[in-house]
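Input.
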Amino acid sequence: MKALGSIGKSIKRSEDKRFLTGQGKYVDDINLPNQVYAAFLRSPYAHAIINRIDTSGALGSPGVSLVVTGTDWLRENYGPLPCTSRINTFVGGEKMKVPPRHCLAIDRVRFVGEIVAMVVAETKPSALHAVELIEVDYEELEVVTDPEEALKPGAPQIWDDIPNNLCLDFELGDRIKTAAAFDSAHYIISRKIKNNRVAGVPIEPRGAIANYDDDTKRLTLFNSSQNIHENRDAYAIDVLKIEKEKLHHVAPDIGGGFGVKNGTYPEPPLILHAAKKLCRPVKWVADRSESFLSDTQGRGQVSTVSLALTKEGKFLGLRVETVGNLGAYCGTIGPFTPTAGTARTQGGPYGFASIYYYAKVVFTNTAIMAPYRGAGRPEAAFQLERIIEETARELDFDPIELRKKNLIQAKTLPLRTAMGLDIDSGNFVEVFDQALSLTDRTGFSARASAATRRGKLYGFAIAPYLECTGGGSKEFAGITVRDDNKIELSVGSHSTGTGHETSFAQLLSGYLGIGVDSIVFFQGDTDRTPFGGGHGGSRGMEVGGSAVYEAASTFIKKGRLLAAYILGVENSRLQFSNGVFFVSGTDKSVTSEDLIAQSAGSEVINGEFGYGYLNVSATFEREIISIPNGCHACEVEVDPDTGEINIVNYWAVDDFGTIV
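Output.
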């Protein structure tokens, strides 16, 4: 099947009119009859024992219908939130240390913002007021927030049964071969490089509404989530101990995610519990201050990076030793980021014969760390480009030439990198040269001199990068013909403002040769899609788009049989192109739209081709990881007195294939 039509063309996003006119439907836009509101008491301490909780003041507050503490939670026999990181063993084979992450603190708080109690009341203000009436007797403990300090003897222990606060260690690459490369090197440059902790801050804070149907004994959760299927399974099976079919998980429009909304959180199971207990809908939406306390955070790595090279500046080996700050708990897949997530793209688009990566993942008294905008890949790129720049400065190499001379050459492809990534295609030198050609290097001196006269510093940098995409290898797509001759496209992947409503419809339009406006897109509903990998790991087009392709292929295969019946020919004689099934050299043809109309009708033209005949679904599971690449360059102006930084020019060349 050849992709034609609208694919690769720039079209207006169909969802934008809805968003720009205020017609988007986010969690906070949803209100259910008879709903109540939840609010949470969060720990003001990074580390403390809970000696006593007095909830009597909250329970006596007007409008309060429920107060839940950790003791109450354990009494219900609910389970902890699971950690599903596929990196889960020490280098020596011992299992990763995973402490129980209950939805409420049980006897100790381990980071500022950890939930101590939940209050449910008739209004949000009354719930927030009642939270302030809860009295907690805390006994403060020593705190450790620095991951390197947490590993030292005598450091405060986050978990009594986890020595040295060490969750696990990890290695990738050839340690012995890398050591030999360093032994043969003329130069070795080492630096300690920090990737600081960051907060994701999507424009829409997290929020959820839980409802319980006493007739069907089924729960519904409207949730600002990037990953409704896996999160549904965790909330239902692991925490609430119910069948996953008993929880209907729905994500409406999502106002940004960046990884913050990918994993599991305690608030959804808590309000699900409250909804079932009260037989009333329960709503919770965080404000920005609460988000800073409760959301997962990203990055948080300290790495010793060492580069070995020849006298002429050819790279021989790279060694990286990382300490990753996991926070107080493992989170959903937190241990993956500073381990495999950061290790896979070490070396970037450069020709390293040997690389060795070693990491320790450490518990601290901080918020939980989770994948954030790249899940380790930006950390790896930052480490690498910093050590290359430092090397160029210390050894007086031209930083541009040092990078270019070490790029992987196109003639050596395909190859497997020292980190195990298979690169089948690409031209890193050409991409680098294209980016450099955009930068007007001949005019740099004049621009820098003008900045100097204004009392400013002026700088230029260029850096290539290599990605690995397609996180979550499996995806679902389904096509359903409607009575109005339109088709519904349902995909398990979910948009967080990333335009799936347009891009997936654009794909299907191109494959089937039908108008984009004849496709109605659905996402974010576990009842419509049996499974899905959500949104994260740069997987939308690679995995979700491939599922759409597979569904379209099945549609065309079945459509060929229907077209052959209508035209009275053998299906082997039919060709398909641009939305038309035809017999070459004749006037016999029928379009995809004709077949859709036939499938939508009630008339059964043959026992085999009845109503809904063209309803199809497909599952795609990738076998390899895609390796896009690019090169970015930037000029900045810095005020040496105030530290203010202004980006003056920015250029980018990205090799992504056909852009949808």
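The chain has 17 helices and 27 strands.
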